[in-house]
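REQUEST ID: PR-0412
SUBMITTED BY: lab tech R.K.
PRIORITY: routine
TASK: structure prediction, single protein chain
INPUT:
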Amino acid sequence: MSVTTAQSNGKVPLQEDPKAGSRSAAAPGSRLAEAFEAVERFPVLIESRERVIAAATAETARVGDIVAAVECDVALTVAVLRQANRSGLVAGGIAGIPAALEALKPAGVLALAGTAPSFDFFDSNGGWDLKPERFRVHALATQRAADRLGRIVGWIDRDELAVAALLHDVGRLVISRLHPGYKVYFDAISRTPEQRLREEREQLGIDHALVGGVLARRWNLPSRIAVAIERHHAEDADGLPAMVATADMVAHYCQGEAISPERLRSSAERCGLSPEALRDLLYELPLPVQDVSRVSEPCPLSSRELDVLRHLSEGMVYKQIASEMHLSVSTIRTHLHNVYGKIGAVDRAQAVLLSRDRGWI
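STATUS: complete
OUTPUT:
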């Protein structure tokens, strides 16, 4: 999808920045391409890279640690998903980091992390109006809110949700590159997300949600991820876009930034979240994460079945689990089949989700 295509669907085309000086002499298409390429070089946090390297080069590759490090970093997530979707061999595309790691193997992710540009917590902005660390903090806050929301409503594909939440504002990086100095569009303290989106459209002729969708398609990410990014500010958003929209507003609220309570309630309702559950979420999310799980019912699974689930939750694939447990792959599949029957799960993602929520793993 191109911006031209978006314009034919009722969107406003990109306009020249009257304050951009000599840069405005460049053709709009050229400036947009340069901005896209700059986002593709967005730096990786050094700590994320170091954690990937440590996990991937350990005597036994710690898959769960690799997944966690990638999912906590916008640039790494983009790089890994772009590479995993480059071949187009997986029907519907790869939307989650565990599946991407299965395709690329730890060595492939290690190569991407090792060659990416990087920044540290205390670095300057590195040429970005929107500082990388500020951008990362809100992305992670949204991802955390989405994960909690997903647990509450029973969202099945949590890997996909984690990616969509982390990348939901990636179009803002393009806006900040095209229009340096327009800090008003990033003022989240006094303006709600919807107000800032309207100002982008009115003053710049484009909005970050649309641009983010274009970027996701440029990177060959699955359509459902692109749509979630593109529509997370739509008033009638449902499904994955509504989950991301709700998480985004909850994250802004928890960071002391402006939101519309009416818009948040409406979005939460479309996710299947009751007003009471929304209040609980807004109360609990700013609190420290509790390590102790609350077990609500006895566990019907054997110790071996629980071990298989724990390894799955760490991002391991069947072959890795079999090797770790000194069993055959067919035995691992048998254990999982038994797990599904005992707890009423339809796939491994739901099995892990249910077991976590019930405090078994």
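NOTES: The chain has three domains: 44-119, 132-284, 303-357.
REVIEWED BY: pending
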